[in-house]
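Chapter summary example: a protein plus S-adenosylmethionine.
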Amino acid sequence: MSKFEKTKWADSEFSQNYRDDADIYLPYRSQFIEVVKSLYSYFIDKKSEVRILDIGCGDGLFVQEILKSFSPKHATLVDGSSEMLKAAQNRLEHYKNTSFIEASFQNLVSDEPLLENFDFIYSSLAIHHLPFEEKRKLYTYIYKLLSPGGCFVNYDVVAPQSGKVEKWFLSLWRQWIAEHPCKERSEKLLDIPDQYKANKDNIPDTLEAQLSTLVEIGFRQVDCYFKYGIFSLFGGFK
Ligand SMILES: C[S@@+](CC[C@H](N)C(=O)[O-])C[C@H]1O[C@@H](n2cnc3c(N)ncnc32)[C@H](O)[C@@H]1O
């Protein structure tokens, strides 16, 4: 089984750089989050006493966005990095009914420490670090954790169908960074797409393979809800 401690996310400088620069180099990040909020509003917000879970939560930005607009009964945030969790705790310090759990995806699957069910499970830009078999095990565990009618969405990078398309998607990503209004900062980040490609921690699988796996596990209404280049938002319902 892969080990979280061996990835770059266990390195504090790497995770700090992400927190500092992600808004500049993640194409349409706020639009991706708006689409998730729309899905949440349409399908989940009508339920009573909603419990949400964010796995690989980073510094808690997504849960904060949900808590600004909606009032779930409880939010649980999980991450393998204690530093990321601390940043999430700071960001959400004024919100009650939140809990923070330090655990890797590998721990979640093997130890099953989460004892309740959730109506909405979210993950962003984290699951692509797992090899395909471990993704499948995590998706199976997520399915088990969902309440009937609950929804799982994953906003993540996926592998393109061919090398040619991948080259185009990476150039599209570079162009997006270059067009950022703050040139001084964006110029320093132009090599992020190449770093992403060279980093062996990144093991994206195709969208097609992951959607089929979700269907096999039992998820319904499985679909890709939004996409730009390699960045995809997909998931399904229980
Ligand atoms: C790119 S950051 C994304 C953070 C947040 N979801 C966001 O969108 O801003 C990836 C996060 O996944 C976490 N992560 C990566 N691999 C993990 C694993 N195997 N188990 C638990 N967390 C993991 C990292 O610590 C980091 O916080």
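Key point: The domain at 4-160+204-237 is CATH 3.40.50.150 (Rossmann fold).
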